[in-house]
Amino acid sequence: MTRRTPVSYADDVRVELARLSPGGSCCRRAELSALARSLGVLRLSGDGPPALELATGNPALTRRVFRLLRYDYQMHPAITSGRRRTSRTRRYLVRATGSRLEGLLEDLMVWHRRRVYPGIGRRLVQRRCCRRAYLRGFFLGRGSINHPGRGHHLELVVPSPRLAQDLAGLMRTFALAPGLCARKDDTVLYLKDAQAIAGFLGVVGASQALLQFENSRVYRSVKERVNRLVNMETANVTRTVEAAARQVRAIRFIDAELGLQKLPRGLREVAESRLRLPELSLEELGQSMSPPLGKSAVNHRLRRLLSIAARLSGGAPPTGAR
Question: Using CA atoms, how far apart are residues 239 and 7, in angstroms rounded to an integer?
């Protein structure tokens, strides 16, 4: 009987991203460029045509790379697969070569006149959607993220300092400020702040992973706060934690998908108060607002927020998993 390899949270994120619609032609170009820079290896043979090889253990990503090469650049890449003796994980190799490859590499701004571009070509990432696509492609290629229950850490492993600086610049356009460190021959961009990691997941389009991340993060945060309120009964604590976690999860999902600023003022104020004070009961939350609201008014607005979140997630409550 064949044993299945355990799937990690990072694998779940990559599978979700690899199955997203790749967007318009400009975004597909940006994403493929990032995949080539992160996953790709150029094979040169004298004056002969080069070959581009992209290796991955993710079947969904393999299909995505193949389709981007095939349908956007009319390439006919070959796919091979196999396992190393020391690993149960199957690896896939996408190999593209031929007369069209040099033009593809030029268009992706991976190299020019048989020299590798030092950073990210500006024309690739002029639009905000293309910057999202580039970051998504690079995470698919050389990104990792911890399970939210085991500490907050997301990183991109970048093969050159110049490319790392350009990637950091892209992240800063989304109000994300990564740290940098050297690791052997690579430069690592990393995020350790939970809110920044959630922001990155939202930027690259990993909505389900974001919900799972927030679910774990919010539940733990709310439970820690509530446990300090020693005068509350256990049943009330549990109900408050579960209700607040559900509400905060929905509000953060609305913020990632729509933006709280687009909500009516009354809903936005309740949403912001719930995010700031997740441990309070409905009555206490209403009294904390200015002017104060009654318990029924707060409950009504929170129910509307839950309804909006369910609508945005396709009709199902945003639980972070399907």
Answer: 32
